[in-house]
Amino acid sequence: MLPTLLTFAAFGILTGLTTVLFGFGGGFVIVPVVYAVAVASGTGPDAMLVAVATSTAVMIVNSLSTTLAHWRSGRLRTGMLFPLAGYIGIGALIGALVATRVPDALLHVLFIAYLAITIVDSLLRRGFISRSADAPERRLGPVTTSVGGLGIGAVASFLGVGGSIMTVPLLRRLGLPMATSAAMANPLSVPVSVVGAAVYAFSLPATTSALAAGRLGYIDLLAVAGLLAGSLPTIAVAKRLVGKMPDRVHAIAFIALLVVVLVSMLVIRPA
Predict the structure, then answer these.
(1) How confident is the prediction along the chain (271 residues), in pLDDT tens digits per residue?
(2) What secondary structure does DSSP assign to the chain, as a single string?
């Protein structure tokens, strides 16, 4: 138990760093790590769902903590957050309910597929890696806000990734700097994590056997404790790094991390 807790704490450090720098809320680190541990420990056919559910629970704390830091620093564009956050919350409810009803192997494949699509799109679509300093910033239209928000929330809670994989590229295409896009991804991940975690926590009866296994519904409580032990102190320190990384380097690092996660998920075989 202690070695597992220390493993989660160690990856929690990386989780905190990616939350601050990329707005991930930790999802793209948490899902592969928890999935690998769940497969190794013989969790069974729900290993991927446990990983997704645990990710949403950790993201509640990480996203709120980082949102507060970005709000104090003045990096948040509050005019863009609403009503987009509301539509994301509605979509998150739909995505989480669907995730509890699909085969675990399919969830694993869809997670990999979405990562691959996002990497290719970010590399090929203009405006993500390179951004013109004098290009005007655009606003979200009503269709993008409503339909896009629902889609972001549904996919994010379905895969346990917080929405940053969609909101960061979206905000980049609107002309926002990478640091601002990553900062904005955190408050937009809050409705995903809160709604998703609630669904995953109460999708299974909280029986004595489930609690004895250290789970609340599909959420692995040991993993949550270990990951937060590593991520929260890291967030407190890493928030000083925001804005100091060159914009192009920041964008390339975002894609590079997605590639690392994609490779790790390809290596880990379903139980």
Answers:
(1) 667 889 999 999 999 998 888 887 667 789 889 999 888 887 677 888 899 999 999 999 999 999 998 888 888 888 888 889 999 999 999 999 998 888 888 888 998 898 898 899 888 877 788 876 666 788 888 998 999 999 999 998 888 877 787 888 888 888 888 888 888 988 998 999 999 999 998 876 545 555 656 888 889 999 999 999 999 999 988 887 777 788 889 999 989 988 988 898 888 766 5
(2) -HHHHHHHHHHHHHHHHHHHHH--TTHHHHHHHHHHHHHHTT--TTHHHHHHHHHHHHHHHHHHHHHHHHHHHT---HHHHTTHHHHHHHHHHHHHHHHTTS-HHHHHHHHHHHHHHHHHHHHHSTTSS---TTPPPPPPPHHIIIIIHHHHHHHHHHHTSTTHHHHHHHHHHTT--HHHHHHHHHHHHHHHHHHHHHHHHSSS---HHHHHTTEETTEEHHHHHHHHHHHHHHHHHHGGGTT-S-HHHHHHHHHHHHHHHHHHHHHSPP-
